[in-house]
Write a structure and sequence with these properties.
Blueprint lengths: L6 H14 L3 H12 L6 H25 L2 H22 L7 H15 L3 H18 L4 H22 L1
Helix pairs in contact: 3-4, 3-7, 4-6, 4-7, 5-6, 6-7
């Protein structure tokens, strides 16, 4: 489903997403839940985040095939961030900023006694930066794509 919005609202949405570090879909999901007065339990929230994460991973591959490295980078970042939020949601934790994402990933790494979580999330953050600056070479993005898939698998194990 694609939403068509007035330019003014589209621009405000873009700025809000940049400011908060969340995707437009996630912001829309939260707004819809509030607007429809729907209470979402932790497992439903985690499911929504996981489904969107999986969609973004597929979208990233499509953008890579088209040669759109900036969009592929952003979708990979979104996929990683949303899967982190899914793990947090299943634990009843709400993450509202980049800083909270990094803190939660550090906590997961400590719990699992595995620093790889932090390294892989740093890769995701580099991809997020690349969306704005588009400086990474295609080969690096393809390598990072594999890293993000590995990160997603590790996070899914924490949910199941």
């Amino acid at each position: 489903m694609e939403l068509i919005l007035p330019k003014r609202i589209e621009e405000r949405l873009r700025k809000e997403c940049e400011k908060t570090g969340i995707t437009a879909e996630e912001l829309a999901f939260e707004a819809l839940c509030r607007g429809l007065n729907e209470k979402i339990n932790p497992s439903e929230r985690a499911e929504a985040y996981m489904r969107l994460s999986e969609k973004y991973l597929v979208d990233a591959e499509d953008f890579l095939l088209k040669g759109d490295h900036a969009q592929a980078s952003e979708k990979l970042w979104g996929s990683a961030a949303l899967m982190v939020k899914a793990v947090a949601a299943i634990r009843g934790i709400s993450i509202l900023s980049h800083g909270e994402l990094f803190s939660f990933v550090r906590k997961i790494g400590e719990e699992q006694n595995e620093s790889e979580f932090r390294r892989l999330f740093s890769v995701a953050n580099t991809l997020h930066q690349n969306f704005y600056e588009n400086w990474l070479h295609e080969d690096v993005i393809k390598e990072y794509y594999e890293d993000i898939k590995q990160f997603i698998v590790k996070l899914k194990k924490l949910i199941n």
